[in-house]
Structure formats: structure tokens, C-alpha cells
Task: structure prediction
Amino acid sequence: MNDDFALRTLAADALKTIARDEQIKSHISNSEELYPLLYRAARRYITGETKEDAVFQAVRLNMRGYATSLEYIGENVSDERECTESAKEFLRLIGMYGTAGRSSTISLDLSHIGMTVDEELAYRHLEELIREAAIYGMTIMISAEESFKASRIIGIYKRAASSYPNVGITLQAHLHRAESDMEEIKHFPGRIRIVKGAFRESEADGVPRSEHLKAKYLRLAETAIATGRPVSIATHDETIHREARERGLIALPNVEVEMLYGIRPDLLKGLKDDGYRTRIYLPYGKEWHLYFFHRLSEYPPNLYRAIADMAMPSGSEEMY
Ligand code: FAD
Result:
């Protein structure tokens, strides 16, 4: 292993640990110095603190030909009242974007709207959001969380998808269970989003970034696409995009490439300019700690960018 690679791996592991550290998160959130400083760097990956920021950005990007997916960021909320407040915020978001005459997918973590407290609470909130989204022709996309939550998430998705067509699910290719999850969900309706997976998992649960993971990702994408359901190839990995292009996958009418706001905008713009369907994932809110540190850990050179952004903040909107 060369020194650069070892250092990068060490930095990535440390950043993933920081991402999950509640004490550091609370310290940053409550600090009048640290929060604004880090927020300047986080702004590269989030649209702002309010839904107005997100909707403004989404409409701009719609006008440039991108579809969007909006998320009010948050996860692991253990207070029932807070979960209900989060669900209400999602309802207001759907209404605001919907009445602007736009249609987006709305992405959420089930642990943001109740799953940590009680699965039934999460289901009730999810159902309310699905119904509201249906009024505007929107889909609710359920995000993937750590592997220990996967069975509960799939269970809630299957229950909702049995009654509503406008709910979709995210599968993490890096998990060993991804193929069996795909078998379980493939006969239900709604969009399937395939991601590699952001959380650090043990060898017993997942595979690391590798050629093996890319092959696994492409196999899952092919299975999802063959169902005829809408599918998001949600990765910034250009080798996967290239392979998916060569196999004729991303030109299919049920397929789109979806990427996170602020990450490889050049790549997504190139795909859009070549005529492929593209979607940008636009998060907003004040709970950006985990999201931001995940983005740094996935590509440690982003640390240099973060330092530069703290001194000279620059958003990502002009890059699309
Ligand atoms: P990687 O192998 O990590 O990266 C491939 C290449 O992409 C890198 O070499 C680099 O060039 C570029 N790249 C990747 N990340 C960055 C970055 N941060 N900055 C700059 N360049 C980068 N994960 C979940 O666990 N649950 C979810 O619900 C979820 N939803 C997602 C939704 C969308 C639309 C997307 C795009 C991702 C989502 N993710 C989610 C994150 C995903 O699991 C990966 O962690 C993330 O996409 C990075 O992996 P990658 O596929 O880009 O491949």
C-alpha cells in the first residue's frame, strides 16, 4: 500500500467516524464560531437552511433541464414531537414545490419521521406524505440507512407500496443483502434508486469500494431496469456510467442518472447535454453534519476544497 493511499483511507475512516459522532455534531451545532464556519463549506453540498433555498435552486435547475429530488435533511430523531414537526416540514415542502407548478421526487430517511421511536409512527407520517405528494404527481423516495435498519425500512416500503404507486426505495449495492432485497421489492411499484452505500459496514455486512462492487452495482441496476420500473443510477462513478452507456442501459426510457448536488456537476451536465435523463439531489436544512462529513469522507481531497470554501465560500449552482 503506498503512503498516499494509506493516508487517504485513514482520512476517509476518520471522517466517517466524525460524521456519526453525536457529541461532535452537538458541539458544532451549538457553537457560534464553528457552525457558521463549517456551514460555508457545507454550502457546496446543500442548497441552504430553508425550503425556500431548496425550492429556489430546484426551479433554477429544472429550467436548465434537470429533474430534482428534494430532501429536508435529518435522521435518527428519537423525539416523537420532533418527528411530527419533520413530517409537517415535508408536507410544507411538497405544497410549496407543487404549487410552484413543479414536480420533484421527495427523499427522506424513515428515521427522520418516526422509525427510531416507533415503526407505526413512521408509517403514519409516510402515508400522509405519499398522499400529499400524489396530489402534485410527486413520488416519495425512501433513503437507505445503516444495514441494521434495512429490514425495517424494506418492510415499511413494502407495506406502503402495496397501497400506493408513488413511493420508491433506495438499495445499497455494497450490502451483501442487496440482491435478496431486490428480489423482495422488485414486484412492487415505484422508483428504485441504486446507490453504492455511504455508511461504513463490517465485512460481514458489506463489500468495500472495488471492481467487485462495480460489477455488483451493474448487475443490480440491470435487474431493476428489467422490471420496467423507473430506475435511478445514483452514482458519481464515471466507469459505471460508461459501462451503463455501453450496455445501452442509461438511454432506456425508464432510466435516469441521479447525482448529489455539488458533486461532479461537470459529469452530470455532460450526460444531460448528451440527451440522457438526469436528476440532482438537493438537500437543505440545519442538520447537515452527517451529510457533509459523508461527502468529505467519500473523497478526502474535498477537505482542501472545504478549507478553501471556508475562506472564500462558493456555491455549486453556477456549475450546472
Ligand atoms: P465512489 O466509488 O464513492 O466514487 C466514485 C468517484 O466519484 C470517485 O472516485 C470520485 O471521483 C467521485 N466522487 C464520489 N463521491 C465524491 C465526493 N463526495 N466528492 C467528489 N467526488 C466524489 N447513500 C446511502 O447510504 N443512502 C442513501 O439513501 C443514499 N442516497 C443517495 C442518493 C443519490 C442521488 C446519490 C447520488 C447518492 C446517495 N447515497 C446514499 C450516497 C451513496 O451511497 C455513495 O456514498 C455516494 O454516491 C458516493 O459513492 P459513488 O457511487 O459516487 O462511488
